[in-house]
Amino acid sequence: MQKRLRIGWFSFTCCEDSTMVWIELMNRDFFKWKEQIEIRHARVLKKDNKLSNIDVAFVEGAITTDSDAKKLITIRKNSKKLVAIGACAITGMPAAQRNTFNEELKNEIEFLIKRFNQASRVRNVKEVVKVDDEVPGCPMDEKLFLNMLEKYLVEFGVVNVPDAH
Ligand code: SF4
After folding, report:
1. Which of 32, 96, 163, 164 is the right S-S partner for 92, CB 3.0 to 4.6 Å?
2. Which CATH class is domain 5-154?
3. Pocket test for ligand 1, best of 88, 93, 122 (most atoms within 8 A of CB)
4. Hey, where are the domains in the chain?
């Protein structure tokens, strides 16, 4: 059986538009990816998910709670490579907007921070774990994502030569 790249797709706090871009790309590339990729974990696509033995984890969104930070650390421990997807994961913004609030606004939202067990500050992905690569954009740049995927398909020995996009 052909070797496949074992990937995970994870979304933290955000609008999940990069996830939509990825799913839209499947309209074109699904049958090619079916031969090349094993989706180990992607809650947007399936219920039976495995958080182990992942070659590349794609992580979208900002980290707003301590429990999400712990989940992200677990993802990192179970993935050989981790790629931050989109501006929220890379810089925190725009999901981290509350970090920029003045004291008055911060006081106004304090009850929500407590009610939803939010951390005092929103963090981007690399403030919590080591990030190997980034796909910028808001949502992610489609071409840069495809290039990144091809790079890892080659690096993990699934294909010899990357597809041109
Ligand atoms: S980077 Fe933009 S598109 Fe992606 S989750 Fe954040 S706000 Fe949404």
Report:
1. 96
2. alpha beta
3. 88
4. 5-154
